[in-house]
Write a structure and sequence with these properties.
The protein has 71 residues and is mainly alpha-helical. Helix content is 42%, strand content 0%. It is built from two helices and no strands.
Length: 71
């Protein structure tokens, strides 16, 4: 049965440069780097990590109403 737990955030998330090095070394060795391969999945994870870092963390709360909406 599948677990609904999220995997923990890695202490050292993969960077795009690390993913690039892995993909390059695999390609030079003649290994598959296409969709679904380890280098492709690693690159996708690195992109996700970058996007998570760049996104501002929302504090929640209510936005103040724009002028003219109160009566």
């Amino acid at each position: 049965m599948a677990s609904n737990k999220k995997s923990p955030t890695p202490k050292n998330p993969t960077t795009p440069s690390a993913a690039s090095r892995v993909q390059s070394s695999q390609a030079k060795a003649g290994n598959d780097t296409g969709k679904g391969s380890f280098p492709a999945r690693l690159q996708a994870a690195a992109a996700t990590n970058v996007n998570k870092v760049d996104e501002p963390v929302s504090k929640g709360g209510r936005k103040s109403p724009s002028k003219g909406t109160r009566k």
